Amino acid sequence: FPFCTVNDEPSPIENLGQVLIGERIQPSPYKFDFLTNYYCRYVCTKKFTSTDTNQQEMLKRLMKGIILNYQQEWKLDNIPIMLCYRNSENKEFCSRSFPIGCYVNKSDQTKKSCNIRDEKNDTFYIFNHLDFEITYHNELGETLGSTFGKDSSRIISAKIQVNSLNSNRCDRAAAPVTFQSTSKDIEIPFTYSVTIIKTSDIHWASRWDYILKSLPQTRIQWFSILNSLVIVLFLSGLVAIILLRTLCKNNPRCIQMVGTGTEKEQFGWKQ
């Protein structure tokens, strides 16, 4: 896809798990210094002219990716950058990926992840502006490890909000970047902002908690666990009874311990 890239920086080395699942990490041109806020930073501008066949093919590929709801996955300090929002129950839900754009079809219908409402139908929107929210932890007197100094800090969470702004100065009042299948010349500026937040409530060892709580597949299914335990106990008791009867069948001591009840069972009702 026609996004801003870095040509002179080597790609990070993947571990064995990332290689097995087919994950390939690429360096990002979005750079910032730790503990420094950035209101607006310009990355690059992608241009698509109607006379260039290759650029028009790239634009069509971008349109197809938006319709198919292609997602981006970013990482910072080995943790995923999450896209968080409130659902209908006013609970925070976080996703490990965010869409590359949004498409409003001819019936004025959009995807759930699209927060853009516009009167134009059959229109594509590209999320070219990213707002990063980085939370870090720095508590005095806490041991962070031998590789950290006394004034060192650690990143706790990384969140992102996507937006579409047709401005290379991050003008919030600017119109969104829109284009249609009949568009001709298009320019897409890519920008971002960074907000650094300090917290003392969340420790570095618990920085994955907000990610795990927002994912439904990681919630503990207490009913399933209780149901499994009941089935295991019932089957274990049944196997224990069968083994006890089998052992007592040829063991005189066990027959004496059982007593009269075993004798009646052996002779039957004809005694």
Automatic annotation (TrEMBL):
<keyword id="KW-1133">Transmembrane helix</keyword>
<dbReference type="GO" id="GO:0072657">
    <property type="term" value="P:protein localization to membrane"/>
</dbReference>
<dbReference type="Pfam" id="PF02990">
    <property type="entry name" value="EMP70"/>
</dbReference>
<feature type="transmembrane region" description="Helical">
    <location>
        <begin position="222"/>
        <end position="244"/>
    </location>
</feature>
<keyword id="KW-0812">Transmembrane</keyword>
<protein>
    <recommendedName>
        <fullName>Transmembrane 9 superfamily member</fullName>
    </recommendedName>
</protein>
<dbReference type="InterPro" id="IPR004240">
    <property type="entry name" value="EMP70"/>
</dbReference>
<keyword id="KW-0732">Signal</keyword>
<comment type="similarity">
    <text>Belongs to the nonaspanin (TM9SF) (TC 9.A.2) family.</text>
</comment>
<dbReference type="GO" id="GO:0016020">
    <property type="term" value="C:membrane"/>
</dbReference>
<keyword id="KW-0472">Membrane</keyword>
